[in-house]
Amino acid sequence: MGIFGVVGTAMGGLIGWSDDDGPGADPAALRALFADLGLRIGPEPADLEAVIRAFQSRVGLRPDGVAGPRTVHTLVRYAREARDLRVFERRAA
Q1: Once rounded to an integer, what is the mean pLDDT over residues 12-40?
Q2: Interatomic CA distance for residues 44 and 83, integer angstroms
């Protein structure tokens, strides 16, 4: 699916898809977004599902372990903020 699939899934969250609608996100793209948050995920699908579930619980989403539109939209936002903070910290140092 790649980054366009992630963006499409995130946009679906903005236009009203429920977590049960639309495509799921690409596992490699999800792992990259979680890496932006400083998380390293094991290689197994169950490892990714556990991290998704923990993230959902942490941000107030239904912790079902599925990266639907709302989950992806929220993850993209948090990952972007984490990247921006690192840039700010480097410039301030």
Answers
A1: 75
A2: 26
**Residue 30 in tokens:** 């999800």
Residue 64 CB-density burial (10 A; 0-12 exposed, 13-18 middle, 19+ buried): middle
Residue 66's identity, in one-letter code, is V
Per-residue model confidence (pLDDT) at position 3: 47
Residue 35 CA to its chain's centroid (Å): 10
> Domains of the chain (ranges plus CATH)?
2-92 (1.10.101)
- Segment (H or E) for 76: helix 69-92
Q: Residue type at 60?
A: G
According to the model, what pLDDT value does residue 1 have?
A: 40
